[in-house]
Amino acid sequence: MKPTEVKPDSKPVSKFDAQKNLKSVPMADLEKKLGSSPDGLSQAEAQKRLTQYGPQRDYGKERKSVPKVKRGGKWTDPAAKEPVPGDVIRLKLGDIVPADARLLPGDPVEVDQSALTGESLPTTKKPSDAVFSGSIIRQGESEGMIYATGTDTYYSKTAQMVQGRNRSAISRKPC
């Protein structure tokens, strides 16, 4: 079989499955798939991806800009709606993780994921581990590479599942 052929019994990979795989592939593969590096994306590439992926959800008045984003090797302060897959972000104590990201080489961080997982204590995340949108950095500082934004994040997928379950529970209520 040639490398470009597809087995007849293989199923197409959904966008969610592709995003799910990005949380565990080796970092070198992640950088290659995202067309990025620890220096981040160029401003032009980030703008192109913002058009492709769309803006992040609106964080309201309390969040006008992101924890820092590295573009072309320089740290910038983009609007909270502008991070895109491939962006490198700086995460430090008290920051809310703006999108799903993988930690780059450096020190581990303590992350509060209770809003997503219900865990009562922060968990230690080390380089190459995934951190999820909506989590809070409780200790340490690190850089991460964004691999999912907006409705493709773990937080968003969890909210969609819960919303779907609530709808089906309502529709099954006896009259």
Protein model, in words:
The chain is of the alpha+beta class and 175 residues long. It has one domain: Calcium-transporting ATPase, cytoplasmic transduction domain A (Distorted Sandwich), CATH 2.70.150.10. The protein has helices at 15-22, 27-34, 43-53, 114-117, 154-171, and strands at 69-71, 74-76, 88-92, 100-103, 109-112, 123-125, 130-131, 136-139, 141-148. The strands form 2 sheets. It has a 6-stranded antiparallel sheet with strand order 2-1-3-9-4-7, with helices on one face. A 3-stranded antiparallel sheet has the order 6-5-8, with no helix packed on it. A hairpin with a 2-residue loop joins strand 1 and strand 2 (74-76). Mean pLDDT is 81; it is low at 1-17.
CATH class: Mainly Beta
CATH superfamily: Calcium-transporting ATPase, cytoplasmic transduction domain A
Kindly report how far apart the N and C termini lie. Answer: 58 Å
Q: How many domain modules?
A: 1
Rg, alpha carbons: 18 Å
Give me the secondary-structure topology.
Blueprint: H1 15-22, H2 27-34, H3 43-53, E1 69-71, E2 74-76, E3 88-92, E4 100-103, E5 109-112, H4 114-117, E6 123-125, E7 130-131, E8 136-139, E9 141-148, H5 154-171
Antiparallel strand pairs: 1-2, 1-3, 3-9, 4-7, 4-9, 5-6, 5-8
In short:
The chain is α+β, with helices and mostly antiparallel strands. It is 28% helix and 21% strand.
Descriptive keywords:
175 residues; alpha+beta; Calcium-transporting ATPase, cytoplasmic transduction domain A; 6-stranded antiparallel beta sheet; 3-stranded antiparallel beta sheet; 5 helices
